[in-house]
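[Structure tokenization] protein backbone as discrete codes

[Encoding] learned vocabulary of local backbone shapes

[Begin record] amino acids and matching fold tokens:

___
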Amino acid sequence: MELNSVKETQVLVAGAGPSGLALACDLARRGVRVLLVERAPALFPGSRGKGIQPRTREVLDDLGVGDAVREHGGAAPVGLAWKDGERQSEYEMFRRAAPTEAEPYGEPWLMPQWRTQEILLARLRELGGDVLFSAALTGLSQDADGVTAQLTTGEVRASYLVAADGGRSTVRRALGITMEGETVDPSSNLVADVRLAEGALDRDNWHGFLSDTGIAALCPLPGTPDFQLFAQFKEGEPDTSPEGVRALVAARTHLRADDVTEVGWASDFRPRAALADRFRSGRVFLAGDAAHIHSPAGGQGLNTSVQDAYNLGWKLGQVLLHGAPAGLLETYEQERRPIAAEMLGLSTRIHRGEQERGAAAQQLGLGYREGPLASGRAGLLEAGDRAPDGPAGDGRRLFDVYRGPHFTLLAVGTDTALPTHDGPLLRTFRTEAVETYGKGLFLIRPDGYIGWAGENTEGLAAYAARLGLDLNLA
């Protein structure tokens, strides 16, 4: 976009973090015209949100980057406690479970945030999109037909604007949306990406060090030669300079300062938990850290953010391209704000040692049973549940059938007549039995949740019309 030009698009996304990139990918694969802008001159360079939970791995697989995530990430290493330069006991940092038919990913996956963003940007470019860097949003106005945004590069007119511009969101503040929260821990913390001399510390463990001045940890980052350094300060403020980081490592561990050969990104923070009062104002939506801020202890921030995008993307697509009622967009806040509140509470309890990083942290059990788009139940499942994986009966997995921006009408163990044709918006699939489903019909939303379930098609066409889906049940 040339300086001072006016550009028109269907969706303007502010912020090229994980949520903004995931949303842009989802919109682009649907054929929605999307412009993704970022105030910085490049992608965020640090490892900050390094933990990818099993549910988010399913989302990333559906967005077409599952192979890249497997290639560049790795399982979380076992924790190892050190004392006075001596190895002590090992301990598990996370719940681990073997993959099952219904849940193909059983444990968190580590990958530095910068790598996740690189992967999503590469996917966005495959889909014909890109990021406009060094484009800060400086103002906005709304009317009945759209949003006009002023950027440092010019003016943009969009049908909708999504603020994915972080915890200090310019858009949220411009809208006057308040964010209520609390300080989870008054202690200052430092996080940095460091490179160590060869042999200084093994990469098979997540190394933890306890001292009178606070906790420190060094976690090897899969797919890189780096470690992520985390340190808590009971008193004082962190020195994030390379010299300060080296001095910290020497003070808190048995390593020498010169064992730290490189210091990359470094930052300090105080853990907070905060939730925006609203996730929407007119034609503007909040997603990711712009809507909710988590303590990093629970590994929920990036994951909840990507799943915000996954929920909103298909709804924008249905309204903009397929004639769904605009009221469908109201369900974004109705579905996602309770989830964000739940995950904020979980992160805070984990940070304070009141709860372990168990099954709840993996986000596989989250759903929308109480939400406005859940209708009916069949077999073993209820509308609003996450649609499990399982054998499709033709050599594929159900997740292979669901993968893509379409809805899926799944018939399990029933000969009920299905729509007479498939299309790019709806695919039908019939199978004799799937243990985790039981018998029935299930309309799977594009974000992998069951929207409607029943024993026959009664009520299905009316429900589908609410989503801009015209079913031919003749």
Residues 377-466 form a domain with the Glutaredoxin fold (CATH 3.40.30.120). The first helix runs from residue 18 to 30. The chain has ten helices and 27 strands.
